[in-house]
Write a structure and sequence with these properties.
alpha/beta; Rossmann fold; 7 helices; 6 strands
């Protein structure tokens, strides 16, 4: 029965946090290594206040600057040693990287329409294939979860990574990923049990 002592000791709670606002917001930033914006830096204090209610055992972050800077501030406030995981970085968007959607539709109108219609099967030239991105994210999560049973762990990462994790936990189809809002500094909680998962919070 869920809620037993044995189950509480085996559950791994993952708190997935999207980095606060960065330079280039509103574009396909992808793996461009941009810093936090002035707005993002102003959001750090409130994010740390929200995270203080959790009892974290460990903290991990993507190696991209916007996630590292967000996580570094949180880890310092929470008294945690930050561990960097390149596997938690955002998807690479190839030729679209750094472009806004308006720019994409002007420069690649036909491809943009195909991408909307056939996502995630329609590739972007030069981009990381979505299937490979998804495998990378799931492998990282599985490794972290297996090593932290009975513990609560902080992961500071990116919107795409978090959407993949939530969609997998909820049994959603990949094409519906963008129905999951992920604001800068959003907090999401997933409990991983031996026999399943429970999503506790989305875009909090």
């Amino acid at each position: 029965m869920r809620g037993s002592r044995a189950e509480r000791e085996s559950v791994c709670s993952i708190v997935l946090v999207r980095h606060v606002a960065s330079v280039g917001r509103g574009s396909f930033v992808g793996q461009n290594d941009v810093p936090l914006s002035a707005v993002g830096r102003s959001q750090l204090k409130e994010l740390c206040r929200k995270l203080a209610k959790f009892r974290f055992y460990a903290a991990f972050a993507s190696d991209l600057e916007r996630a590292r800077a967000t996580a570094s501030e949180a880890a310092q406030q929470l008294g945690l040693e930050l561990q960097i995981r390149p596997g938690l970085r955002e998807m690479h968007f190839g030729r679209w990287q750094g472009l806004s959607w308006d720019q994409v539709t002007k420069r690649h109108r036909r491809l943009a329409n195909l991408w909307l219609k056939h996502f995630p099967l329609q590739p972007i030239p030069g981009a990381e294939p979505f299937a490979r991105f998804k495998r990378r994210v799931k492998a990282e999560l599985e490794e972290i979860v297996s090593a932290h049973q009975g513990r609560c762990v902080l992961l500071v990462t990116h919107g795409g990574v978090i959407r993949v994790a939530l969609a997998d936990a909820l049994g959603m189809k990949d094409r519906n990923l963008f129905r999951l809002a992920q604001d800068p500094g959003a907090i999401n909680v997933i409990d991983y049990f031996a026999d399943g998962v429970a999503v506790r919070c989305v875009n909090g």
